[in-house]
Design brief:
The chain has 251 residues and is of the alpha+beta class. Helix 1 packs parallel to helix 3 (74-117) and helix 2 (38-64) packs antiparallel against helix 3 (74-117). Strands 1, 2, 3, 4, 5, 8 and 9 form a seven-stranded mixed β-sheet that branches. The chain is built from seven helices and nine strands. It is elongated, with a radius of gyration of 32 Å. It has two domains: 2-116; 120-245, Nuclear Transport Factor 2, Chain: A, CATH 3.10.450.
Length: 251
Amino acid sequence: MSLITTIGVPLSASFFHSSSQQCQSPKDSFGASLWDNPQIEMRFFILYNLQFEIINFLYKNLRKQGVSSHFSDCQSIEKIKNMKRMFIFLAILILVSCRQAGDSKQANRGANLESGMVTSQDTADVLKTYHQSLNIENDSINKIIWAQDARWLQAFGRVFKGRDTIISFTKYLNRSPGYAVSRVSRQDDAEITFIRPDVAVLHEHHEREGQIINGLITSTRKINTTYILSKENGVWKIRDKVTMDERERTN
């Protein structure tokens, strides 16, 4: 038993431990473990078991030839060296295979985003949700497009939590005289980025002139708004909204 104990088990267990650490640590661009891919698990399982089959095969053959635990025979020592070379080869094979499978997983993930998981219809639906949110008088639509636990941090530092609270304040704001007399003088196209197939970020910029705040007509407001939307049961909903004004830096 000294042969398999001395050469086989410790070396095998050692590089299995280091290889498993190498293969478990990588993450794809979405933060998911690469072990989510069953191809990687199966490949590693096959290679790991193949290693022990080779160990067992070599050990049995050495025993048949009457190799002693002291390895006095030169031919036996050469066989042991060959076994070590096989171990090194298998370790490299496992690490390379795991890396290739991980790269393939990440490439497939990116390809799926481009080829079908995010469609032009998703982009159109996100944009439609944004435009619908501007129609504040349509309660039936607003209750659909806003998530129930949505939040809005508005330009003056107030935070509104909950769909109904946001809808109520938006109506109040648009009906207030100081806001109603203002107009949008510039509206840029919205920019949409998909963080995941079911999570999107929309950023929009516009300028508003003539708004009266505290009895004074304000200078042109340069307003940036960022929306975070999630797709729930096929419907894109606004989960978070942050509105901020651009301001010139003063010394």
